[in-house]
Amino acid sequence: MRLARSTITPTGRERVFGEDEIIVSKTDVTGKITYANHVFLRVSGYAEEDCIGAPHSMIRHPDMPRAIFKFAWDRLLGGHEIFAYVNNLACNGDNYWVLAHMTPSRGSDGSIIGFHSSRRVPDRDKIAKVLPLYDVLLAEERRQLDRPAGLAASAAKLDNALRDQSKTYDEWIWSL
């Protein structure tokens, strides 16, 4: 059974997982899930057969700015790791926040063959600190009638916010 993300309505209920747990998933270079650990499956509510081969965006919450994922993809495809606070969507519409550490996986020749994400329980204070920026980015995306233009405008706002703070993304995320 494959559920399209767009058919899931957020419930506003938040799921939690243990501080000693790590949600792990792996994808191919196109973002299709190739592995999901038992914590991923339990917290997201999906069965393994729902996940394997499905786009990782299946757990993307509609309140997450697409600019954050664009930034993450740009970093990963450039061969770099990234940390991000991400609000995910479970199969029944519940949400769960994570601190995601995403890294490229490399083949024996050094080429990128996929991506690996390990997610931990985030500090609630840090989520409160990212939300104002995420809200601005999301509002910009929704303000634009044209979806690509909204993403471009939101990405520009992210760049401007970091420039205004005289910080790189990494400096910003670790300063929270």
UniProtKB/TrEMBL annotation:
- The organism encoding this protein is Gemmatimonas groenlandica
Q: Which domain of life is it from?
A: Bacteria
Gene3D superfamilies with a match to the protein in the record? PAS domain
Q: Which residues form the PAS domain?
A: 28-63
NCBIfam families recorded for this chain? sensory_box (TIGR00229)
Q: What is this protein called?
A: PAS domain S-box protein
